[in-house]
Amino acid sequence: MPTTKKESIQFGIMMCFGMVLVMTIYNFYLNGIIGNITIVGAILEFVLAFIIAFVLDLFVFGPNAKKIAFKIINKQTSKIWIVLTISTCMVIGMAFFMSIYGLLVTNFHHGWDVYSILTDYVSIFSNNILFAWPLQILIIGPLVRYIFETFMVNRETSI
């Protein structure tokens, strides 16, 4: 886990990249956009989502998820429970706000229906949280932590 501001930024970039990449493809699939969007359009949507997610991670949810997690559990709890609690707090917050972004993108591609904004948001949020939480806990989180601990932390301490 990151211990310095530099490590937090590196870790956040890797985590956001992995989560945003997979979640972007997932949402393209859900919205029937795959095959209808250009490569440039897909890359632009990914980059915009990555920037938004990274800013939210760095300034809003990263610091606050840790504060909330340590109000739920204490620092002497086993590392796995600390990671799971922080990850869960992050996923809930990120899914909540990134689903707003998803609602905007969906309506951009399919047109606006003012009467269904709330139900559309609830549907998008539900789909995102149900996919993002296991993705974070089982795949992206462990992969990024492994890469980070193997290549980033060890390289800096050996120099």
Automatic annotation (TrEMBL):
Coiled coil: none annotated. This is DUF2798 domain-containing protein. The keyword Transmembrane helix applies. It holds the Pfam family DUF2798. The chain crosses the membrane at residues 12-30, 36-60, 80-104, 124-148. Keywords: Membrane, Transmembrane, Transmembrane helix. InterPro entries: DUF2798 (IPR021529).
